[in-house]
Hints:
Layout: H1 5-15, H2 19-32, H3 37-49, H4 53-66, H5 71-88
Helix pairs in contact: 1-2, 2-3, 3-4, 4-5
Amino acid sequence: xxxxxxxxxxxxxxxxxxxxxxxxxxxxxxxxxxxxxxxxxxxxxxxxxxxxxxxxxxxxxxxxxxxxxxxxxxxxxxxxxxxxxxxxxxxxxxxxxxxxxxxxxxxxxxxxx
Length: 113
């Protein structure tokens, strides 16, 4: 187990698939200790796994405001930004893929682009 009882309780909630309880416990602990990088990192990771990228980004930015040279937070933030970029990228528009007539991706223009 961890030396931090909050982390231990949060891990137990996660094992029991009580993610909302885990987040509530972390949020309460962060409210009482807003500069705790360990807690912020843990919550950012949970938000990341839930694909709640805005909340994860908020926690990672908070970590960087406390500790600007935190490489882990910087790398995680970069990864999330890459994921968001890929989600927003229209692969059909950026390649020469042929879209057959009747395809759900077809815009009616079936020639090569």
